[in-house]
């Protein structure tokens, strides 16, 4: 079987993706080409349109213009649930993790949701055991095996974010969208989450919005830089960080000192 043709290389593509809010263009004719198996970073100053892009890709927002393709299939007119079923899943916000359930229970609930709980499935104890083993495996993957019995509410912040990623992984997404996975974390947690993203990226594609340039430089295979809703640059970290337009876009934006420092 012939694999790796031009079509096969991209799992997610947008053509002219545009979102207008009452005449304000938040996302402006964005062409994204996310290669299969890549960790692809979407970066840009605050207000550049990154979160809006995520909302468009997961269909929480309707694009004003443009098309979205998943594995070559046009999914522009699909509903969020359809897109999620296809395997494009955005990491839940912390609030979506049940605070009084343990880490293990949270992953199991997420797996059940992914399976669409059928009654006869639950009658079999063997299915339950099998589910447990898989849930423990996922916790292990994100470094939370020793936290399995701890209630989410008791977990330190960085671990809670890792649990959020675990509940997303429970759905076995083909494309995982992470919006600022290291936000608000100290150095140690950032390093740990960086490692875990790298680990969970095996056999899947990751599109992440990330402000921490150490993370972007450390694990991205490709980067798209947005500014004022439009694509400003794309390429490897070396390529985009060397681009004068990128440096200029980040200047004067106090919240983005990190990139300027990193350049
Ligand atoms: N629902 C909305 N209504 C109006 N304007 C919005 C809405 N969502 C986002 N915007 C505007 O679109 C721009 C891009 O926002 P956003 O995608 O959140 O940027 P980023 O995630 O890159 O910081 C911002 O100027 C923001 O104020
Ligand atoms: Mg945002």
TrEMBL record:
Annotated coiled-coil segments of the chain: none
The ABC transporter domain, residue ranges: 12-253
Keywords: ATP-binding, Nucleotide-binding, Plasmid, Transport
GO molecular function, one term: ATP hydrolysis activity
Ranges that cross the membrane: none
Cellular component terms (Gene Ontology): plasma membrane
SUPFAM superfamilies: P-loop containing nucleoside triphosphate hydrolases (SSF52540)
Family matches, as SMART domains: AAA
Entry-linked InterPro entries: AAA+_ATPase, ABC_AA/LPS_Transport, ABC_transporter-like_ATP-bd, BCA_ABC_TP_C, P-loop_NTPase
Protein name: ABC transporter ATP-binding protein
Upper lineage: Bacteria, Pseudomonadati, Pseudomonadota, Alphaproteobacteria, Rhodospirillales
């Amino acid at each position: 079987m012939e694999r790796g043709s031009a079509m096969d290389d991209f799992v997610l593509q947008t053509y002219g993706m545009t979102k207008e809010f009452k005449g304000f263009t938040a996302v402006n004719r964005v062409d994204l080409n996310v290669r299969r198996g890549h960790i692809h970073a979407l970066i840009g100053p605050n207000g550049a349109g990154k979160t809006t892009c995520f909302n468009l890709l997961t269909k929480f927002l309707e694009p004003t213009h443009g098309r979205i393709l998943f594995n070559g299939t046009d999914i522009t007119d699909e509903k969020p649930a359809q897109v999620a079923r296809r395997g494009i899943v955005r990491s839940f916000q912390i609030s979506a993790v049940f605070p009084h359930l343990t880490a293990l229970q949270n992953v199991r609930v997420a797996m059940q949701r992914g399976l669409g709980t059928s009654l006869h499935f639950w009658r079999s104890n063997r299915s339950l055991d099998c589910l447990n083993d898989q849930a423990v495996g996922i916790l292990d993957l994100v470094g939370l095996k020793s936290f399995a019995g701890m209630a989410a509410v008791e977990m330190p912040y960085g671990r809670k974010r890792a649990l959020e990623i675990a509940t997303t992984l429970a759905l076995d997404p083909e494309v995982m969208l992470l919006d600022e996975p290291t936000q608000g974390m100290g150095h140690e947690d950032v390093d740990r989450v960086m490692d875990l993203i790298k680990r969970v990226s095996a056999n899947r594609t990751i599109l992440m919005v990330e402000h921490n340039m150490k993370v972007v430089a450390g694990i991205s295979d490709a980067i798209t830089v947005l500014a004022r809703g439009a694509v400003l640059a794309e390429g490897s970290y070396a390529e985009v960080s060397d681009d004068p337009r990128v440096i200029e876009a980040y200047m004067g934006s106090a919240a983005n000192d990190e990139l300027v420092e990193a350049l």
